[in-house]
Design a protein that fits this description.
Two copies of one chain form a homodimer. With 346 residues, chain A is an alpha+beta fold. Helices cover 30% and strands 23% of the residues of chain A. Chains A and B meet through helix 1, strand 1, strand 2, helix 3 and strand 5 of A and helix 1, strand 1, strand 2, helix 3 and strand 5 of B.
C-alpha cells in the first residue's frame, strides 16, 4: 500500500487503517482535518491543543455533545455544521463566550470519503463563521455494521464574564418567558426527510450558532435569569427543567408561540406536537418582567432573533407544573416527553 | 410508562427513550451519571459546566479522545477507566495539569444497563483516583445494529504552568529517549481476549493515568523536550512522529526496550511486533543527554515509572529515519505502521 499519492476523496472509502495510528491515519488528518479546519493549534499535531487565556477571565465553561443525527445531510444543514452549532450553543447558554472546539470522529468502515469531506468542510465553515476554531481532535474507525456512517462528538470551552450568573434556580414567579423565533423547524425537517414527505414550502433546519445573539442579550439585560436551547424534548423539556429547578410553575400562551404554518401542518401529519420538537438554532430566555420588552427589542434587532416573542411567564405553583393556555381559552398540561418521539434528531 | 420507580440496573436495557431528552433520559442521568460521577458541576445540570480558573494559569490545554475499544471489558480494565486515562494522559503529555473532564456517551439500543453501570462506576473510580472530575456530559442512543454497545468520547482541560514548553520540534540530536515501563501490555491483553488465547501468566492492560508521573518528571527536569503516550501505533508511531517533527533520526536499542516475556511470546504467536502495539499507561520522554540519568531516577522512584529505561537517542539523519539496533548487533528500520494491525484497541 502506498501513501505517497494524495487521498482519493472522490471515490475512496473509510477503511480500518484510517483509525490505526499509522501512516493512513496521519495522512487523513493532514489532508482532510488539518487542511479544512486550518489553524496553528491543529497543525502542531500534539496530543492536545494549548491556548492562551484572555486576561481577566474569571471562570471557564466546558460543554460536550455527541451528534448521531440521521440522515447525515438534511435541508438546511448536516451533521457537520450541526455538531459545531450544538456545542457553541451549549457554551453560549451558560452565558459563556465560546473560544475553542475539540472534535472526536467515530467513522464506520466503508463510509464514502466524499461524504466525510463534505461534512468536514461544513464543520470548518460553521466554525469559521462562529469564530470558534476546532483546535484538537481524534479519529476512530469501527467495522462496517458497528456504527452508522459518522458520529461526531464536539466539546467547547469558553469564558464567562464576571457578573454573569445564569441558572434556572434564579427564576421567580412573574418572570417572563421568551423564545428567539419559530419552533420545530429542525425536528420537522429531519422527520419529513425520514418519512419521505414533501411540502409545498420546504422546511429547513434552523441550525445556527447563537452566541452572537446571547452576547447582545446579556449586554442589554445582564439580569437574564436563565437561557436554554430547546433541542431534544423541545420547548416542553426546557420549561419542565426550569419549573423543576425553580420550584414554580410555567404558563405559556399558545397564540403567542411562533410556529410556521408549514411546520404546524407537518406536525399534524406526522403526529407530532411542536412543543416537543427539537430546535437547533433557537433559545428560550427568562428575565424579570420589567426587562422583558427591552430584551425582546434587542432580540428582534438581531438576525437570529428576528421572530422572537414573549410566550408566557413563571407563576406560583408548588407542583411545578407547566401549563398552556390554548387558543380556545382553556388550559392544558405540558408534561415531559414520555418515551421516544424523535430518535436521532441531533 | 411510569418513571416513578427507580431504573432496574440489574435487568434493564438501554432503549431509545434514554436519549430522547424526556423523562427517561433525565432519570438515567440522575440515577446513573450524576450519582456515580458525584460532583456539584454535574448536579447543577446545566448545558455546560462552569468552573473557576486557578490563579496565575497562563495557558490552557484541551484534548479529546473517542473510545471504541472492543471488547468493552478486558483484563486490567474496561472502556470506562480507559476513557478517563486516555484523555488525562493526552492532557498530561502536553505538560498540562488535567483539571476537568467531559464525557459523551453513544449507547446502542438494547445494551444491558448492568454493563453500562459497571462502566460508569469504573469511570467514576478512575476520575476520582486521578483527581479529575467529570463535570459535564451528553448521552445519545442509536438503534440496535447502528452502534456497538457503548462508545465514549472524553475531553479534558488543564492548565500548563509558565515555562513548560513541550514540543517534538525541540528535540536535538544527542537527546536521550526514555520509556516509563514495559511496552505492549494493553494491546496484547485485548488481542489475546479477542483471539481466545490464554497464557500461563495473564497479561493485563496497563491502563493508568500518568499525570502524577509527568508532574514529578517536569519538576525534576523542566527541560524535557517532549512527551507522548504510545497508544495506537505504539512506540514506532511516536518515534516516527518525533523524527518527522524534529528533522532528525532516532536510534533505539532492542536490548534496552522493556517488554515482558509473556508479551513477547504472545506477540510472536499473534504475529505482532511489540514496537507497534498500543499502550495505555506508558509514556515516551525525550530529554537532553545530561538530564537523562536524573530523569530516569525520578521515573523509577514513581509507581508508574518503576520499570523505566533509557532506550536510545536522537541522531543526526536528514532522512528522519527511525532505526533499531537489534540484539544481534545489526540495524533495522522501524517504519510507520502501514495498514491496520490492531483495530479498535482503544
Amino acid at each position: 500500500m502506498s501513501y505517497s499519492r494524495p487521498i482519493d476523496f472522490k471515490n475512496g472509502r473509510v477503511d480500518l487503517s484510517h483509525g490505526s495510528g499509522g501512516r493512513a491515519m496521519a495522512q487523513l488528518i493532514r489532508e482532510l482535518f488539518v487542511r479544512h479546519f486550518d489553524n496553528d493549534y491543529l497543525r502542531a499535531q500534539n496530543d492536545g491543543a494549548c491556548f492562551p487565556l484572555p486576561a481577566g477571565a474569571g471562570r471557564m465553561v466546558m460543554a460536550t455533545d455527541s451528534h448521531v443525527v440521521s440522515p447525515l445531510f438534511f435541508p438546511g444543514g448536516d451533521i457537520g455544521c450541526l455538531s459545531v452549532h450544538g456545542t457553541v450553543n451549549d457554551v453560549a447558554m451558560t452565558g459563556g463566550q465560546p473560544l475553542y472546539l475539540a472534535a472526536g470522529f467515530i467513522l464506520e468502515e466503508g463510509f464514502p470519503l466524499a461524504d466525510l469531506q463534505r461534512i468536514v468542510i461544513s464543520m470548518a465553515a460553521a466554525a469559521k463563521e462562529a469564530g470558534v476554531p476546532i483546535v484538537t481532535g481524534d479519529t476512530k474507525v469501527v467495522e462496517q455494521g458497528k456504527g452508522d456512517g459518522v458520529f461526531i462528538t464536539t466539546t467547547g470551552v469558553g469564558v464567562v464574564a464576571p457578573g454573569i450568573e445564569l441558572a434556572p434556580q434564579r427564576i421567580r414567579p412573574g418572570d417572563k418567558l421568551l423564545v428567539s423565533g419559530y419552533l420545530g423547524d429542525h425536528g420537522v425537517a429531519i422527520m419529513s426527510l425520514r418519512e419521505n414527505l414533501s411540502f409545498e414550502t420546504a422546511i429547513e433546519s434552523d441550525t445556527a450558532a447563537l452566541h452572537g445573539l446571547v452576547a447582545a442579550m446579556l449586554d442589554a439585560v445582564p439580569g437574564i435569569r436563565s437561557l436554554r436551547d430547546p433541542t431534544r424534548g423541545g420547548l416542553a423539556a426546557v420549561l419542565n427543567e426550569f419549573a423543576e429547578a425553580a420550584g414554580c410553575g410555567m404558563l405559556i400562551h399558545e397564540k403567542a408561540i411562533p410556529v410556521r404554518g408549514a411546520v404546524a401542518a407537518a406536525c399534524e401529519l406526522l403526529g407530532l406536537d411542536p412543543l416537543y420538537v427539537a430546535n437547533e438554532g433557537k433559545l428560550v430566555a427568562v428575565c424579570p418582567a420589567e426587562d422583558a420588552e427591552r430584551l425582546l427589542a434587542v432580540m428582534r434587532a438581531h438576525p437570529q432573533g428576528r421572530d422572537a416573542a414573549i410566550i408566557g411567564e413563571a407563576i406560583v405553583d408548588a407542583n411545578g407544573f407547566v401549563q398552556m393556555e390554548t387558543v380556545f381559552g382553556g388550559r392544558r398540561m405540558v408534561d415531559w416527553l414520555s418515551g421516544e418521539q424523535l430518535p436521532r434528531i441531533c
